[in-house]
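hey so i finally got around to running the thing on that chain from the lab meeting. sorry it took forever, my laptop kept dying and i had to restart like 3 times. anyway pasting the input first so we r on the same page abt which one it is
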Amino acid sequence: VHVKMADEAVCVGPAPTSKSYLNMDAIMEVIKKTRAQAVSLNESIFCSCKPSLSLQASEGVTFIGPDTHAIQAMGDKIESKLLAKNANVNTIPGFDGVVKDADEAVRIAREIGYPVMIKASAGGGGKGMRIAWDDEETREGFRFSSQEAASSFGDDRLLIEKFIDNPRHIEIQILADKHGNALWLNERECSIQRRNQKVVEEAPSTFLDSETRRAMGEQAVALAKAVKYSSAGTVEFLVDSRKNFYFLEMNTRLQVEHPVTECITGLDLVQEMIRVAKGYPLRHKQADIPINGWAVECRVYAEDPYKSFGLPSIGKLSQYQEPLQVPSVRVDSGIQQGSEISIYYDPMISKLITYGSNRAEALKRMEEALDNYVIRGVSHNISLLREVIIHPRFVQGDISTKFLPEVYPDGFKGHKLTDLERRELLATAASLYVAEQLRSQRFLGTPRIPIAKSKTSIWELSVRLGDGIYPVAVSKDVSSFSVEVDGMKLNVTSEWNLASPLLSVTIDGTRRTIQRLSRNASGDTSIQFLGTVYKLQILTKVASELSKYMPEKAAEDTSSILRSPMPGAVVAVSVKPGDTVSEGQEICVIEAMKMQNSMIAAKTGKV
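ok and heres what got predicted. didnt touch it at all, straight out
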């Protein structure tokens, strides 16, 4: 989308980052070719491109962002930690040098004390990060983190520090100019994460009091001034249950989650970055920075949330509709209907932001926006996002970076229907079935001439949902349906626009937005209800009684097959034909969306 919106676009190379966005010769060639006066490089991969900024300066090109020194200092986690200590910023205990090999990693980890965090020195965005609880995990973490770091950032250096168990991840947005002025623009709560990558963010945080907020803000500004930082940037902290906070890293760019800060402060951060790059002083004082209302951001990913809280999905967006009809909703995306989600970059579809005068209002709007978001063609994490924002712990603000594994210890399973919600879903599905049957009896709004006059007044159906089969009776009542489920009658009304991807249905006065994703002649249908996709089979009573005579297709035996759970590139193979492998042994390594995943044998056998 950004390419189509631009007046002029130049391809910098093929999809792999090492051949395009990390190829600084190609970047500089484009700058010269287009005679660009200013350049903005706001992706995390540019943290490793230190030589480019000096070259830009020599070419007379203004860089919209901090200068070379600040990017080098803060982009390197080892150097940034030393600078933070010197600026009297609270830091996490750990090893401040570069870890040479796996043996040294184990020795350092033992000295610090388990658990430890192994992470890329030049990294960001959760790439090249592993938590290790023992020597074996340290060796494995060193190998994968260094490989991911080299692939994503062109720099495989690692550091090791103490892993703070059960913390919150809270960051401070700062803004500084070239005249020595710097502000902190309040905090963002980023504790809902999976694989060290943020999923849901909000501003402000429910946890911080004004005193802690000010202390964190002042330390963030002190660090920015220590490196003569100019532009927008983010100082990230880990905060424990007693509100002790520790410097994590500084991101020398505009963060994915910056819109929530814009919502509560009223500042346009991109505009401020351009002004700073031009040399203008900041227009605001610290006392001018407000907290107005509440904002929440959900990262909508092309991922299957039922596999490790989100394994990447690729494919073409066959249908795509953003929920912009919902009040106070903002959607930042770079795709449109027909766009491809590939294996080369993060599988993010969009950033979905809602704003309200208070947190409850912002969350309610987010719930509505997620229900009205249409994404077809790839798996997505709408169901997980919706469950997070309505979970009692999240609503109460009782969260940490361990929220997902604590709330879903056996993995995410989707929304668990209450008895009332189950009846609502059954009644809605049955009404949808009957509405379709009635539509098929009409042609351009005129009843077809029947061979035999239909006398159907009550449709007796059998609906399969999960392991249950439920008898459902539906009768038409002018503009609505009366549906009997479990001996209870529900009134279901809708405009029944069956061509629309969204259906607004009212069930006994409760309005729901549903999506019917698929159906076939066998009565199978998939309906997205309360964010989760449910598979149902709707048959007439007679058809249901006869269906037991239909043979079922045997499931494929895959116990002897190693099948990747996601598309990607094979970067390493650890076995060869004829080898005997044990259960749990690594077979190969798959790289997808800049993350590496070890594929292991499900059972003992011969390759």
